[in-house]
């Protein structure tokens, strides 16, 4: 399986979950619920309110945030 197919599958599994998206230089991060994954961008509902679209090429990384049920 191609690397891009694996990446896209991983990203789609995170839709509806809380995630952290970091900037390329890792100085900033946004947290919220991942609403949608498109070919070139993520749509994120921010924890502090609002919805934002983030270009994948400007994101340094995306990672799920463990929920209380997952850590128990």
Description:
The protein has 72 residues and is of the alpha+beta class. It has a single domain, classed as Roll (SH3 type barrels), CATH 2.30.30. 21% of the residues lie in helices and 44% in strands. It has a five-stranded antiparallel sheet. A hairpin with a 3-residue loop joins β2 and β3. The chain is globular and about 35 Å long. The model has no long low-confidence stretch (mean pLDDT 84).
Q: Features of this protein?
A:
single chain, 72 residues, alpha+beta, SH3 type barrels, five-stranded antiparallel sheet, 2 helices, 44% strand, globular
The count of domains is 1
In CATH terms, what is the fold-level topology? SH3 type barrels
Strand segment count: 5
Alpha-beta classification: alpha+beta
Q: From the alpha carbons, calculate the radius of gyration and give it in angstroms.
A: 12 Å
Proportion of strand residues: 35-45%
Terminal CA distance: 34 Å
Which residues sit in consecutive blocks of at least 5 with pLDDT less than 50? none
User: What percent of the residues sit in helical stretches (DSSP H or I)?
Assistant: 10-25%
| Second rung of CATH, namely the architecture | Roll
Series of H and E elements: HEEEEEH
Shape: globular
Strand order, main sheet: write it out.
Answer: 4-3-2-1-5
Q: Class in CATH?
A: Mainly Beta
Largest sheet: 5 strands, antiparallel
Mean pLDDT, all residues: 84
